[in-house]
Design goal:
Number of helices: 0
Largest sheet: 5 strands, mixed, barrel
Number of domains: 1
Radius of gyration: 17 Å
Structural class: mainly beta
Helix content: under 10%
Oligomer: single chain
Bound molecules: zinc ion
Length: 144
């Protein structure tokens, strides 16, 4: 048994690392109604109520369209502001919330409908008690 302590810990349940440590997303889709969730352990569909046996796991696209964005100017102590909290409709679903970066703060650069990609990066230098780092998802504009 070996434990590779150099691998970061996913900061969200919908981030999974493959055997080489490469991060990706995992999601579930309801086969009864088509609803998609950024989750891998749902017990029922929130839209139609179908049970877990109707939910299939899939690997979502790492590209999507910006649904909404909010410039956050006040945060918890230790959280650098401003940052952009965004909601992105991934191509084929699901919808995922996260931080949008590398856009600047001009309204035209964070307008609804811009194309973005998911990238993975260290979660702002945070560590657990054992000193392990976390990995989180971010959104960046595709055209930048
Ligand atoms: Zn459903």
């Amino acid at each position: 048994m070996t434990t590779d302590t150099s691998l970061p810990i996913p900061a969200f349940s919908f981030i999974k690392l493959d055997k080489s440590g490469k991060p990706g997303l995992v999601a579930q889709r309801c086969t009864a109604c088509g609803a998609a969730y950024a989750d891998s352990e749902r017990v029922a569909c929130g839209k139609c109520g179908a049970r877990a046996d109707k939910l299939e796991t899939f690997t979502p696209s790492l590209e999507g369209t910006l649904h909404s964005a909010v410039i956050v100017k006040r945060g918890f102590p230790g959280v650098d502001v401003p940052f952009i909290s965004a909601v992105v409709d991934l191509d084929g679903g699901p919808t995922v919330k996260g931080t949008l970066r590398n856009t600047g703060f001009e309204p035209e650069n964070i307008a609804q409908g811009i194309r973005v990609k998911v990238c993975f990066d260290d979660a702002l230098g945070r560590k657990d008690k054992q000193g392990n780092s976390f990995i989180a998802h971010y959104f960046e504009p595709i055209s930048a």
